[in-house]
Amino acid sequence: MAGVLSKLHNSAQHVKDLAAAYLRDGEKGRQSDIERKSNQFANVQLRIVVMGESGSGKSTLINALRGLDEDEEGAAPTDCTATTTEITPYPHPTLPNVHYYDFPGLNTVKFPVKTFMKKTNFAQYDLGIIVTGSRFTENDQLLAKALEKAGKPIYLVRSKIDETVRSERRRKGYNQEETLQRVREQCISSLKAAGIQEPRVFLCSAFDLDQYDFPKLKETVVSNLSETL
Ligand SMILES: Nc1nc2c(ncn2[C@@H]2O[C@H](COP(=O)(O)OP(=O)(O)OP(=O)(O)O)[C@@H](O)[C@H]2O)c(=O)[nH]1
Ligand SMILES: [Mg+2]
Fold first, then answer.
1. 138 alpha carbon to ligand 1 midpoint, in Å?
2. What's the CA dihedral at 160, 166, 168, 173 to 10 degrees?
3. Are 67 and 148 a contacting pair, CB within 8 Å?
């Protein structure tokens, strides 16, 4: 069992160990087991990799997940031109052992797909977030397949949903729920075509953080990971 799955297993085992210690030694046993486990979990590092095509909104998403404005100190640089050139880790705001890894955009002159896929060790990450823009591309599919092959859970973030809503709104008979549903279904079927059994898709806008699926994404990342710590 690898990555998050094995850490989840450890977490379930943790609960069993606590119960056993309590039955054996009462409250004192439970306390010492908590101390032992806390020390053990202090060394667990979790790595969330954020990947996708250039300009899809990876760095902006990481800043949003960390609760930082783009011009705040410590925020990942973002721009409308190719920006991230080195893999950069950013700590989770409340879980110090958890880091988001901001990747350079796939499919630029500096990072052509072939080199990118060859050089990236997908196995070293615990969770993959793929950020896709207005279309799920062949490169997004390559990333999904590589993460799946490495046995990593995948979240697909369909970014810039505010732009989609804004342009679709002009159509006659526009219905926001239906539009979002269509986009969601398209993302799910693209992931299924890439061989992902249970696609997890989040429609997000970095500029409307309390709308669409961003609150759910933030909560899901924390709830899934905090179980493992
Ligand atoms: N409207 C809208 N624009 C966004 C959103 N997310 C990012 N952007 C814009 O998209 C552009 C690129 O964002 P970045 O976060 O720098 O994209 P990136 O994927 O990190 O880009 P590279 O590092 O070059 O690969 C910036 O101008 C952002 O302001 C969003 O949800 N909605
Ligand atoms: Mg970037």
1. 20
2. 140
3. no
35-90 pLDDT, tens digit each: 655 555 566 789 999 999 999 999 999 999 999 999 999 999 999 988 899 999 99
How would you classify residue 90: left for phi > 0, otherwise alpha for psi between -120 and 50, otherwise beta?
beta
Would you say the CB of residue 105 lies under 6 angstroms from ligand 1?
A: yes
Q: By the 8 A CB rule, do 122 and 147 touch?
A: yes
Neighbours of 213 (CB within 10 A): 18
Which residue matches tokens 């990942």? 76
Protein residue closest via CA to atom 10 of ligand 1: 57
The full DSSP string for 109-136 is SSS-HHHHHHH--GGG-SEEEEEE-SS-
Fold entry, domain 46-226: Rossmann fold (3.40.50)
- Output the CA 133–ligand 1 centroid distance in Å: 9
What distance in Å separates the CA atoms of residue 229 and residue 55, rounded to the nearest whole number? 32
Q: What is the pTM of this model?
A: 0.84
Average confidence score pLDDT of the chain: 86
Q: What's the sign of the alpha-carbon dihedral 170, 171, 175, 178?
A: negative
Range name among 6-20, 24-38, 103-117, 179-193 with the lowest pLDDT average: 6-20
